[in-house]
Structures are given as structure tokens and as C-alpha cells.
Task: structure prediction
Amino acid sequence: MGKDKIRINEEFYDIMPPEYRELVENATYGKESRGWKDMGVNKELIEEHSLCAGCPESMAFRYILASLPAPEDTVMVGSTGCTSLVFPHVALHNIHSLFGNQNAIATGLKRALTVRFPNKVKDIVVLAGDGATVDIGLDMTLQSWFRGEKFTTICFDNELYANTGGQESGLMQKGFVAKMAPVGKKFDKVRLPEIARESGCQYVVNMTASQPGKVEKVIRNAVYIARELGPTYVQIYTPCILEIGKQSMEGLQEMRDSEKPTERFAYKEYITDEAKAYLADLDAKRKAKATAQLAAK
Amino acid sequence: MESTSVIGTVNKKGQTFTEPRQLFFEAPRVTSFLTGSEVIKEAIRRASVDVMVAYPITPQSEAAALIGELFAEGYIGDYMRGESEFAVMGQCAGAAFGGARVFTTTAGPGTLRAFENFPMWAGARLPIQVIVTCRGVNSPLSIQPDTLEISFLLDTGMMVWHAETAQDFFDWILMGYIVAEQPDVHLPLAVCCDGFFVTHTKDTVMLTPADMTLPPYDPYRSPVPCMDMECPPVRMMRDPFVMKSNYISYATHASWQQEVRAACERSRKHTIALMGGLIETENLDAEILIVASGTAVSQGREAIRLLDAEGIKVGLVKVKSLRPFPTEEIRQATKNAKWIIVPEFNVVGWLAREIRAIIDRNDRVIVGPHVCGGMTMPPEVIVEKIHQVIKAGKGELVHG
Result:
């Protein structure tokens, strides 16, 4: 959909919230070069949020929204958790229905939109926490990958159930003492990125949200590849500073510390040959287009 | 897409999009001899369904697979097997959020596994249609017909209808979409039947022509935005009330729950216009009435025939819609009855409970006979119960 569909009736203009007016006037719809650098000036997709001060999840959320290649045709699917407090603020159609069924919802949604808009690309992006993705929703996460469903799954991995107050999750580190793990978690952090690779994902990345440029690149790749080839999975460390005993200003450092080469969030990427070739082709086309535009000038 | 604009045009299968009332009441009908499962397929062939999600569970597996054949023939936009009923109902929700007309079927333990989805469907105002071919939900394992699961569905906010015959199925599946998709209703619909008795037996059914189909669903008539990024508003709210502990949050949730129930009540006028009422009645002047839903109605009819041969007159109320519940209709229909017999295919007698809750002098309600666990209910059992009632006579209660 383009900006022409979201015009505000003049009679109501003065009573519309400022961020809705901004959306209508300045939306980066159709701007292929949109990215994290627009964040300071284009806040139309997310302005306020209701997460804790300094929450790395809120940073990652902003980077992701700024990086979506085609927000005008992107529908997001969430799940219960801290992210479900943010989604109502987001100026993209987004669905919260239950806890853990996000990849089932995305499956039906993608199929419906493919039936309804056969000549148009509609990107579907799932964004859920690690409890939703790996514990209660693992079945539906994996099954959507087995089926090769063409959408992106992003997991905000904060290694625990944050919204309910810091309980053990499957992605928690072994030995971590938390609620419901009173003597320390007994088993290893579930290796979902590797499972994703074996389950048919075309592109898998394990990372933190410390570098917006890197998040942008990964999200764009993930959405482009899912659009054409099949499922993609991005697991991003978004530490819950509250539950690991950090201060508001310490989230960034926590992510930097955790992405060192020997640490559990060292940047890891898996991409199929097919996806690699597809990205190279996209890149070549983009360059050819830019060259042609330059020549035309 | 404006659905009225497509009336008279032809889809890719050569079917003409037909005005619903014309399809239901004016189109010629052909007599066919089919199983209930085959009838479900024939109804869906004419329903312009966009997405069907299937999963195997007895006794609905055959119907779900037959609709796969319809997909292979090109009558349905997309079709898939989900991984569990919980996932299936999520996939149905996703498709409905995306503006598709959605169909699915389930049964017994599947209904219960799916359960978290049903109030979500209603709250999200998704006009999905699910066929529930009831079977036992107890342990030890049973696959046999038993209607206990219907009682769980009654307070989900969904519309719930209970079909007696394959003909009901054919008509109600098609009419159901028209009722469920009305802007002032826009709710999911469970069309229930008694498994095996309806799904696996052959019956004579009057079908509409296969080259006529319902107009497609128009998601832009929904009272809530379709999640397709083709319609504003794209920003839903500034201040989410999801988990806030304040009056506005409570009031929002409270009023929405009431609105969902009100929408269900508003479906009455559409249902009455198409199905002739939420109940059907015969011989209401009789002192003894059988009030039933589903297959129990058919057995009641047989019992009435047997009693008639003995010179005992018994009337009948067939309850077609359980949600909305035909409260006033049943009050009126039973006002002169001395005894109200409620035969049921479940252990708890939920229909009797519903009726007792809404009529005056509710000691007139005889709970039963009921059978469960897959047992059939020979009409003689109902006859015997009525004999007991007559013998006990004069105000003395008879418990089944």
C-alpha cells in the first residue's frame, strides 16, 4: 500500500496524534534506501514504547523497523511477552493472538496474502521472545521451517522469561540461577540457530543488537531471502538488564561483552548457496540500476 | 473488493458467483445420496473458500481430506495440513487476519487441544467456520460419537449451531458464512454434528448446482482492520491497554467482551432470515415435548412416531442454534408443556441445563434420556422415558 491510502480526513487532522500525522506525511514507504540512519528523522513506525529505560530490546526493535525493506507491504506477527507491549505502538499492521502460536499465525497469514495478492509481494516478519520461539512455540517454529514457509522469524533472545519476571527459559545459559531454576539451570542453552539450519532455513544469524548497521544488513537479507526462497531465522541477544542485575546504561556493554569471538553471541551466519547467489544477483541489479541512473543524469 | 460487484461473473472453475438468497432459495436442487463427509465437500465446493487447514482426527479426517481434493481441482485458494489442532486453529486465524475466507474441521480431543484459539478467534472477530464432528473426549480413548465437547464451546463467544442431518450441513455451511461475515456479526461459527451418525452415514441431500458459488468474502466490511497493509489505520493505538491496571483498561476489555456477545446476539436476525428460525417446532399443543439438538432430534422423531401409534401425542422442538441461544423461542414453545424431555448424547445433559436455566417451572424438564461413549439412542429408550413420565404423572419428578 502506498501513502495515498493513509491520508487523513481534513476535518480530523488537528485531533490526530502527531505520530500519525508524521506517518502520513513522512512515511518512508517505497524508499528503497531506508535504514537505521533514518531513525532520528523518521519516527513514523515507532515513536514511543513502553519498555524499560535502556532496554536493548527497544533498540533492536527500532533498528528492525528502520531496516524493513518495504514497510508499506510488511505485516508483523508477535507473541506474548515484552514485545507485545511495543507492538500496539507500531505503525505496521501487526498481529498478537496467543502465546507461542506466532509461526502458525504467520503461516496462515502468508498463505492468505499470497492467495489474495498473487501479483504483489507481502513480507511477513515474526518477532517474538525466546520463550515464545523456543519453549512454548517450538513445535510451530520448527514446523514452519520444515514446510519452507516464506517468512522471517526473529527471536529476541534475552535468555529468560522477562515479562513474567525472570524465569528459566530454554535459551538461558546452563547454571544461571533464576526463578524456576532455583539451583541453577541444569541443561545447555538450546542451540536453535543450528537447529534452524538443519530444519530448512535459508539464512540463519546469531548476533547482538550492538551495531545498528549490522542489524540492518541482516534484517534486509533475511526479508529478501524469505520473500523468494524460504524461511530465515535471526536470533538477536537483547539482554533483560533488569533481570540480570544491570543498570539502564549497561545494556550496550553487555551486548558487546557477549559478542566477543569466544562468547555465545559471537556473530555467526549460515547462508545456503542458493541464497548467497540470490543476494549477489540482487546486489548486481541494484548496482546496474544505480549506474544507469547516473548515466541518465 | 465489493462482493456485490462480482455477482453474475464467473470464477476460474467456471462457477457463477450467485447472490446468496438466490443460491439458497431459488436455484434448482438436485437429489443426491451422499455421506455427511461428502456433503461437507459439496458445500465447500460452492462456498468460495480461500484457505482450508486440515489435520487428521476421527471422524472428521475424511471430510478434511476430501476438501484437499477440491484444492487439487482448483476450487480452493490454498490448503495445508497443520501440525496439531492448536497450530491449525492458529493457521486459520492467520489466514482470516489476512482477509481470507477460512474453513477447517475438527473433532473431540482436537477441539479441546485447539481450545485456546476459540475465544481468541471471537475476540479478534475472525469469521472462520469450523465443523466439529463430535466424538468422545474422555479417557480411556474413545473415537465414538459423544457431544460433550459442544458444552465447552458455548461460552467462547463463537456462534454454535448443531446440525441434525447432512441436509442441515449442506445448507448451514453455506448460510453460515453469510451470517458470520455480516459486519454487525463478524464472528467465528462452529457447525457441530454428532460424529459418525452424520459424517459416515449416507443420506438424501438436495444440492444446489455445482456451477453456482457464494460471492467471495469481502474483508473490508469487517468491523476491525484486515491485517494486509492495504487499509488504514496502520497504527492501532498510542497507549496500549494490554496489561495496564487502570479503569480504562478494564473498561476496554469488559466492553469488548460484551460487544462480542452482543455481536453473537445480532446474528439472530440474519440466521432467522436464512434458516427460518433458531428452532423448528412440531405439535406444540402436546402436553409432552421433546426438546433436542443434533441426532437426538432424529431419534426423537422416531419416538414420536412410535408413541403416536399408541395414541400418545408428543411435540418436538429442534434446537438449531445453541449460540445465540433461542431463549425466547424455547420459552414460547414450551409454555404449555407439562413435561419437557431432553434426550442427549452426552453424560452431563448440557442442553437440559441450558433449558432449565431459562424457563419458568423448570421442574418440567426431564434430564435425559442420555447416552454417551458412542452408544446409540434407540427411540424405544425415549419412548420408555416418556412412559415413565406419564406413569409418575401428577407432579412427581422422575430422574433419568
